[in-house]
Structures are given as structure tokens and as C-alpha cells.
Amino acid sequence: MRDVASERDVDRPGTTERVVTLDVNGRSYTLRLDTRVTLLDALRDRLGLTGTKKGCDQGACGACTVHLDGRRVLACLTLAAQAEGRAITTIEGVAGTEGPHPVQRAFMDHDGFQCGFCTPGQIMSAVALMAEGRAGSDEEIREFMSGNLCRCGAYPNIVAAVREAASGGGYDAHL
Fold it and tell me: Per the database record, which ranges form the 2Fe-2S ferredoxin-type domain (predicted)?
């Protein structure tokens, strides 16, 4: 087996592979990837972090929302190579040593999920919108969460969960 880290010269003519180092949830991973691999596919297929969901794979549903340097992005529209050298936080990295993140706890308290498929993306967006200072009202929460779709229609519970977590104040996306 070849040492991936020593193959920094993979940018040879005719190849679309390169070595990419991803900093995910405070841990560094060095991968040899095709330059066209999305961050979503690298997280799920190469790193086994399956909490980030593949919904539409077109940037329309928000199920793949992760944080890149503390800002929410759609992992299905972001190339893994674009994330190199940046801090990536997935749903697996949101909880602290004390237990679930306040948004996760509020989602549980308010039944902010039904089937649960969209929940990781919803939570990642909620954590980020609170850090952005955009959880001042239910209308604002709905507007800034509108890129995250829920097929089950748990929107009232999601808004209630975000409102409760935001009312605690002080939470940010830079975990």
C-alpha cells in the first residue's frame, strides 16, 4: 500500500486525482481524491461520517448542510478540494463534551423531527443562523431556515426548537 501523504505530486498531466487534507471536527484526514469529488461524498464514502445526508444532490434540500469555517454550506455543491485547509464541522462534531448541543437538545424536546432524515441539516443550519444573529423572530427563523426542507412537515416544531435554543443565547457555529 502506498503512503498517500507522500504522493503530493499526483497533479501529473492526465490525472484528475490529488492529495487533499481535510480538517473535520477537529481531526485531520489526508485523502487521495478525484478533484471532482464533492465534500459530501468525501465525508460519507471516504470518512464514514454518514450523519450528513445526501438528499437531492442538487443543493435544493439542505440535508447535506455542514459548516465550513463556521459558515453553513451545502456539501453536495462544495468540492472536497475547496474545503482543504478550512475547518469543517459536521453533525457528528456539534455535540460537546457535556452532551448534545443546545439545538440538538431543543430538537428532542420539541419533536423537531419525524423521520429524522433532514434533521442533521436542519440542526447545522439552526446552529449557524443563531451564530449569524438571525433567530430574532419566528418569521426570521423560517426565512433563514428555508433552504432546509422537511418532507414530514415538522416545521412548527423545528421553529419552536430553534426559538428555544436561541433564547438561551451565546451559542455559536464555531464549535
Answer: 18-94
Which residues partner with 19 through β-bridges? Answer: 32
Query: Are 23 and 89 in the same domain?
Result: yes
pLDDT tens digits, 92-106:
999 989 999 999 999
- The boundaries of the domain holding residue 88 are 4-93
Cβ atoms of residues 88 and 39 within 8 Å = yes
**Total-model pTM:** 0.88
Residue 163 sits in a domain whose CATH number is 1.10.150.120
As a whole number of angstroms, the distance between CA 22 and CA 37 comes to 13
How far is Cα 139 from Cα 134, in angstroms, rounded to an integer? 10
